[in-house]
Amino acid sequence: MRWSSLLLVLPVLFWGISYIAIKVVLRELEPVEMISVRFLLAAPVLYLIIRLKRLRLWPLPMKAKLVVGALVVFLHFWVMATGMKETSASNTAWILTTAPIFIALLGWVYLREKFTGSQWLGLALALAGVLALVYNGNAANFGWIHTRGDVIVLGSCVTWAIYTVGTREVTTRVNPLVATFWMVSIAGAVFIPFTLITTGPEKFLTLDANTNISLVFLGVFCLAIAFWLWSEGLARQTAAEVGVYLYIEPLVTMVGAWILLGEMITVWLIVGAIMISLGVYVSEKFGKLRLQEHDV
Questions:
Q1: Distance of CA 249 to the CA centre of its chain
Q2: Burial per residue of 176-185, b for 16 or more beta-carbon CB atoms within 10 angstroms, e otherwise
Q3: Is 58 exposed, middle or buried (0-12, 13-18, 19+ CB in 10 A)?
Q4: Distance in angstroms (rounded) separating the CA atoms of residues 116 and 162
Q5: Residues 291, 244: Cα–Cα separation, whole Å
Q6: Residue 84: in which H helix or E strand, if any?
Q7: 123 compared with 254, residue with greater pLDDT
């Protein structure tokens, strides 16, 4: 395996397993508590990476947009985690695969970017795939109580689209690693004290070992190291090559959730996964979506 390929494979594996880790953590912590710990662990690791790469943290342009971006990033993680309390890790991974289509749709609405017929077809196929995931062989699953988690997770695709479209100008002027560090740090500076005041430190001292391991994995490996490796890999491979790796992530989640969480791999899960993948592929292949905007 080429070194550049490894730089992309590892983040995909980390992100695929991250949905399983989130399900483990949510057994003991609320979404705000979990995200606060992730930011607390990720910020110093990102800082060390930036120092090793000798990137400049200051002066920093577009400070106001970075602050807004930090709040939207937190909102995205919170919406996703809230939805995951009521749906499976596998459903979450496949639903989030549709994020690039929502990014293109938002760009069409607010930035007047072209949204082609192929992209409309891709959106329709992807949403049909989401419906297949929700259905899972039982029409009663379409009731609000049963679908609420999936709908909320789908909403996190919208929050990611808002973040991506809203920070495009920032990422052209600020190194992505530096921008990520500041957004994680800013959001952490707000929500870590909030969590300590509302929850108290005692709860975090009595967590199960699996929860602690999952938190370290989510903060250090999925949020800091994975983003660093992904950005390095993107700089070394073409968009066409990168696209292949993006479909591995939900497959890792699906198999991992089956082994570790006991989530069943049903016919409807497979049908939904195929339709979502086909919808995103059609949008990318013929609609020229930006592959880098897959990462959620």
A1: 11
A2: bbbbbbbbbb
A3: exposed
A4: 20
A5: 10
A6: helix 63-84
A7: 254
Rounded mean pLDDT of the chain?
A: 82
At 136, list the tokens: 């899972």
Q: How far apart are CA 261 and CA 171, in angstroms?
A: 37
Q: Which pLDDT band holds residue 214 (cuts at 50, 70, 90)? A: very high
The structure tokens listed for 200 are 């108290």
**What backbone phi and psi angles, to 5 degrees, belong to 199?**
-100, -40
- Which has more confidence, 173 or 235? 173
Find the mean pLDDT for residues 263-269.
84
Residue 245 in contact with residue 252, Cβ under 8 Å? no
Residue 260 has pLDDT above 50, yes or no: yes
Classify each residue of 224-255 as buried b or exposed e, where b means 16 or more C-beta atoms within 10 Å of its C-beta: bbbbbbbbbbbeebeeebbbebbbebbbbbbe
pTM of the model: 0.85
Q: Kindly state the average pLDDT of the residues 87-95.
A: 87
Residue 81 CB contacts under 8 Å (≥ 6 apart), including other chains: 22, 26, 31, 34, 35
Taking the mean position of all CA atoms in its chain, how far away is CA 146?
Answer: 23
Give CB contacts under 8 A, 24+ apart, made by 107-116.
Answer: 107/165, 110/165, 111/165, 115/287, 116/286, 116/287
Quote the tokens at residue 275: 């339709």
Question: 6, 14, 21, 295: which is closest to 160 by C-alpha?
Answer: 295
Contact 154, 105 (CB under 8 A): no
